[in-house]
Amino acid sequence: MSDLGLELVDPHYYAENGYPHAQWSELRANAPLRWFEPDGYQGFWAVTKHADICEISKQPDKFSSEPRLTILTEARQKANSIGNVMRTIVNMDPPDHRTYRSLATPWFKPTNIKMLEERMVESAKELVDKMAASREGDFVADVASLHPLRLIAHLFGLPEEDEPFVLDATNRMFGAEDPEFQRSADRDEDMEQLRREFFAYFKKTADERRANPQEDLASLLAHAEVDGQPIPELELLSYYLIVLTAGHETTRNAISGGMLALIEHPDELAKLRANVGLAASAADEIVRWTSPVNHFARTAMCDYELRGEKIRKGESVALFYSSANRDEEVFEDPFQFRVDRDPNPHLGFGIGEHFCLGATLARMEIRVLLEELVPRLDSAELTAPPERLASSFVGGVKHLPIRYAIRGRA
Ligand code: HEM
């Protein structure tokens, strides 16, 4: 590994090579907490052990999410990126974080999410039918991106015709470093344009819901109050943004990475086919294996000792969930993909203060799709190598060309 640690954060490295698992294994073994200053980046501590990520994530008073939530190049960090002009729950600290998070928590409780299952099954059946008819295609575009998008749009109460806008805008946001999703050579201009489009769309949605309330999450947030006052516009529109975008990009990457894992591990696919009751544990193993959110960062609010190193106030720590999810001290044979892994205390959804609000929804979406797809899937093979997204923040397969043999509905 180079001394600079560029492989850990450079989006183009991820596009070409996938996740830097060899580097993380070396770090976990020899320097589990290590300072890096890659060219063009502000320095950061790479946190690669499961226990350390838990320790840091559970102390939001000592490790803040506000100043620097991801490790981007200095130029991008300073630029007018969408993150700098939004105020979402993911980059708030307590007490505001708890106040704002609690507004949407009831919607994401298992009892509420269970009510979406019928819509999920309907979506999964329809997508598998389409796969059966076409026999070949890009699994990301045809299935993985559509299933979570429909469900989050449904939860939000957005009309179906708006889904392509949400999909395109999310691709541009998470794919900001990926040439496929850039609209111009000027990425700052791209981000500003995107921010304006998102804001205008969310503002229209909020105004409509205020005038004409519905039984959906968009209405709940449009009418929510903090300290007896409506949520300020910036926080409201940011809430829409985080739930809508975090709600499908990540799940899409889990689904496409999961499909790839099943193709690459035919014994595990056979195991799942023989016992589809394993779909729930397979869904969790897919999240561990793919770790769609590669990292989030925190900023130390005080000096802090960890593993004999001193993290100084103001320094950043990068929490590499994907490394923690291969930690040999926590997982038996961490480099084996096992659909029946149990226990599976992965950190794919983070942990502590900011534990993923949509974890129950994401797990159910993946499980339901597996339950519909796997029993009907006789075979699947790649027709070209998968293409990966250029991002060190959210990792994923952006195109997965597959040929499959799928049976009709039973
Ligand atoms: C496989 C799919 C998913 C993965 C891997 C994932 C991963 C994560 C991770 C790692 C965090 C922690 C952020 C931090 O510690 O700073 C997080 C937070 C969050 N996720 Fe997810 N997520 C997924 C699906 C979803 C879905 C379906 C939704 C919503 C519908 C969602 C909404 C959120 C929100 C709102 C937060 C911020 C929570 C907070 O700051 O309190 N996620 N997610």
Largest sheet: 5 strands, mixed
* pLDDT < 50 stretches: none
Class of secondary structure makeup: alpha+beta
Name the CATH homologous superfamily: Cytochrome P450
How many angstroms separate the termini?
A: 51 Å
> What is the top-level CATH class?
Mainly Alpha
Strand residues, percent: 5-15%
- Give the distinct bound molecules: protoporphyrin IX containing FE
Q: Give me the count of strands.
A: 14
Domains, number? 1
Helicity level = 40-55%
Total count of helical runs of at least 4 residues:
19
CATH topology: Cytochrome p450
- Tell me, rounded to a whole number, the average pLDDT: 93
What is the CATH architecture term? Orthogonal Bundle
Task: Describe, in plain words, how this protein is organized in 3D.
The protein has about 400 residues and is an alpha+beta fold. It has one domain: Cytochrome p450, CATH 1.10.630.10. About 50% of the residues lie in helices and about 10% in strands. It has 19 helices and 14 strands. The strands form 5 sheets. A 5-stranded mixed β-sheet has the order 1-2-10-7-3. A 3-stranded antiparallel β-sheet has the order 4-14-11. A hairpin with a 2-residue loop joins strand 8 and strand 9. The radius of gyration is 21 Å and the shape is globular. The structure holds protoporphyrin IX containing FE (HEM). Protoporphyrin IX containing FE (HEM) binds next to helix 14, helix 15 and helix 19.
Keywords:
single chain; 410 residues; alpha+beta; Cytochrome p450; five-stranded mixed β-sheet; three-stranded antiparallel β-sheet; 19 helices; 48% helix; binds protoporphyrin IX containing FE
